[in-house]
Amino acid sequence: MSDKVAVLVAGSWGTALASVLASNDLDVVVWTRTEEQTREINESHTNNRYLPGVELPPNIRATTDMKEAVSSAAAVVIVAPSSAMREVTGQLKQYWTEDMLVIHATKGFEIESLKRMSTVISEELGCEEGRVVVLSGPSHAEEVVRLCPTTVVVASLDAEAAVAAQDLFMNTYFRVYTNRDMIGVELAGALKNIIALGAGMSDGLGFGDNAKAALITRGLAEILRIGMEMGANPLTFAGLAGIGDLVVTATSQHSRNWRAGSMLGQGKKLDEVLGSMGMVVEGIRTTQAAHAISEKYGVQMPIADQLYHVLFKDRNPRIAVEALMGRDPKTEMEMMPLETWEQWHT
Predict the structure, then answer these.
(1) Is position 67 annotated as part of the catalytic site?
(2) Using 50, 70 and 90 to split pLDDT, how confident is the model at 29?
(3) Could you point out which of 131, 216, 266, 325 has its C-alpha 20 to 30 Å from the C-alpha of 157?
(4) Which residue in the list 192, 212, 268, 269 is annotated as catalytic?
(5) Which residues sit opposite 102 in a β-bridge?
């Protein structure tokens, strides 16, 4: 089998995953959109726009030619933004072969269709969705490239594909677990970005640790409710893709979603926030998708709903918080009816 792995595209997370693969002595080719980025990676071994001050392993090569990137590769790792996933996978299609392992590490939905990324990929490639592997979990790119201990999960309906992905990435600083619940892992990875936006907004408003802890906890309840309705195993949300990724994204200043939320809480408008970030903030698009998904499935997601109105209906963040705090009294366990809990335990 070839030891070549293609990574599409060279953002911060794609570059970090490429560095893990390169550390495992694989031949890593990164597909980029611009000649300028390609030259920088090939000649300077840096990607300063996305990971400033980081020297990349010398066995990472870059190209703008999709055929050159993908041909003869044993695996393709797709790390395109959710908004570009269909376009990038469409370009991959003519060079992809059925013996190639397909892994994606994108956390979001296709806004127009509300589809998960594995569905989009399988549609474009014309393969079974169960053949796609998703990589997720608590993993800031800035820490991965510094070889900080990191633990993630790979999920697929195809157990052999998941193990193959595990073998590609696993090393002494990057530990990988497998999971069969692809739906749950994808939903957890996407939806936690909404809660991270809210946590950042809470910090920007100066509300303190009590408010943030409540937001994270009740946010997990929302993710669990909609996840179970869409067919996920509730135990997934207690794992790396669930609470693990939620905590790291909602509490760290490395998180783009947290930073965007913090700026919104400080009174900045969405256009101003996006202009200053310079990178994709997946939680904003995911909030839009979650609002539509909650209506489609008839599942209450009050935090996501209030964030939707802040982002897209110009609601004042303080008014949104008052609306959340002023909701009718509830029992804490209303998100998991007893009969549903028993279903998973019999």
Answers:
(1) no
(2) very high
(3) 216
(4) 192
(5) 76
